[in-house]
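Retro notes
What went well: the complex prediction finally ran end to end.
Inputs used:
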Amino acid sequence: MTGTYAHATGFYAGDRPRIVTSRFEHADSFTLERYLATGGYQGLRAALSRPSNDVHDEVKKATVLGRGGAGFPAGTKWGLTPDGVFPRYLVVNGDESEPGTYKDRLLMERDPHQLIEGCVIACYAAGLSQCFLYIRGEMAQAQERVAAALNEAYAAGYVGKNILGSKFSVDVVLHWGAGAYVVGEETALIESLEGNRGMPRLKPPFFPAAIGLYGKPTIVNNVETLANLPWILTNGADAYTAIGTTTSPGTRMVAVSGHVKRPGVYEIINGTTTFRDLIYGDDFCQGIRDGNELKAFVPGGGSAPWFTPDQLDIPFEGPQAGAAGSMLGSGAIMVMDNTTDIPAAALTLTRFYAHESCGKCTPCREGGTWLERILRRVVDGKGTDADLQQLIEVGTSICPGDFPHASSTRLGLTAVPFPYKMTTICFVGPSAYTPVHSALTLFPEEFEARVTKRTHIPVTAVGVGE
Amino acid sequence: MSRLSDANVAIAKEIISRYPRPKSALIPLLHLSQEQNGYITNEAMAHLAELVDVTSAEVYGTASFYEMFKFEPVGKYVINICGTLSCALMGSEELMHRAEHKLGIKAGGTTADGLITLEHAECQAACTEAPCLQVNYRYRFRVTPADVDSLVDDLRAGKLSDEIPAHGTLAKVRQHIPADRGVGVVAPEAATTAPSWFDGKAAL
């Protein structure tokens, strides 16, 4: 099957192994009936037939990298809860809002039972007593589909008391947000779930696995991460690691948007698919629209430093993208062709992060707004060369030291690897600077053409003291 | 009337019962209140404060953090046009101009008849289907300026009232945990030992 499915807008199956999107071709993929007819809840049955630490080991062996952005292996994360401290909670991060990203929304709308099964397996494996499934507020249909699926799953005995007639019991509670990008940060998500303003917590502790929801050990997992678990428990970790590479096994979902012929969401083989495959491959985006040239692309969501055609042959693999000066984030590529106004494009992202700053850390609250206003001035043709210097100074107060960027043969630049240092608690502040830094570093001429030289007027010129 | 109705109080209590701390229910309850009244009033926040046992200032403190809660009346339909990178690359600015012209208002404004509010939105997670917009959080994909005109015409003619509920209503389906199937809350202070099923033996 290579076509798109009218009911699964934006998704293209292709001729590739599918772990999390295997039901998308069915118009009724979100119903319990379809789920059961296509192997649904078999992974849960397999899991409950084994001791929980055995299930935990299986997931560890599969090395399921977290799909929320940081890429931390789920099995290892579960192991960070302190021994003997209970209760432990599971919080599912369905607050997907990174610019360019959407895969969790499709997984929730198209296959909610797969996510629910993943939640229940995770609770069993890691000894988690209650699960809260937090869905982004603006996703009305995802909320409806997950609510309906939970109601079906409770009635049929897949969630709640004595699951599948076993001694295992856990509730999955649907929770939904109200519009705040920063809540995707795991400690902000927990604050929000406690009914507070969604501001990230001070670190340490670095992981809510130690101190999380209501001060108790809490695992926060991304939707796509959990959606992999039913398949792994049904088919085994060995079958999972047989796909992809040793460091990045399995598949992952990637959204490619912008100036390509066929923008879409694809489930790709992890670690081996290159950016060239994704942007130019017949099975993927089929090249740049209107016969235009590729100018630049954002490889991993709005927070990621930009790549140019020099980086096309890098595979979609975390450590390699990092060494090349960027990151994969939540699996989103935004493509810009040669008609793109680079400073204006950077402004849309900087405005996003300035707008979404929660206001807790000064460098982000003030710096993001400064970056937006200065960049706006430059884009409007009212900027001076001092403004460009000011952009870098403000950026350096958010991220001191070298900031990662890609190499460029055109400009004779060598790459500075990811990550950066930061003066803020979370990544929103640095993310406001990232597009500014990438655009200024890789396309300096577009900024210089935009600004006027500031004329220095000496004090004596106005006749003071004469 | 901006306190929750009796029927909605019953729903609110069911939602509160799923959380170890009542305050955790605050965001879902604010949505419930907005569903009932179209926006969040001071009286509503005072009532929610009673229900979850915090002060009304704390309710406002939480509510004012989140984009979706409105503290003044908005249109029956709120149109959110995305302007982040993928949509901007595909022409979202033109959509906003067209919508402002068609409606005779600026972004952030509401039409004089109170039917439509127009807002600039940040990434709505439909980037491959850019440019996109939402009407009361229901998507429209690959929108053209002509589509904006016909959308506004359809909203004015009442043609979309079945598909798109009035502003405030999010999911039309609610979670309901049957009494005989639910486990109930696991409060942080109540359970200090491992759950009984977490005993190193298979559950089935």
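What we learned: The first strand of chain A starts at residue 89 and ends at 94.
What to try next: split runs per interface for comparison.
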